[in-house]
Amino acid sequence: MTILLIIVGMCLVTMIPRLIPAFVMEKLQFRPWVNRWLSAIPYAALGALIFPGIMTVVPEQPIIGVIGGVVAILLATFGLNVVLVVIGAIITVFLLTM
Fold this sequence. Notes:
Blueprint: H1 2-27, H2 32-39, H3 41-54, H4 62-77, H5 82-97
């Protein structure tokens, strides 16, 4: 029983900080330029996450990683979902390494 209470408590402790911003942010109204800036954050984070891997995908041929990065940039420019951008870059690198 103690372990079950610990699991429920840990569940609450991790979910409360995740749910509160969702309800608070829904009520806030930002200026248009702030909304544009906030919408760029996922793509900036994506760039920071994939850039180190771009140069090390195939150490003997770094151009393959660069091409995959360019494909990711192009897909992000079209405003695709972040998941689709990542999948597009992965498929590109996969096809180039075959």
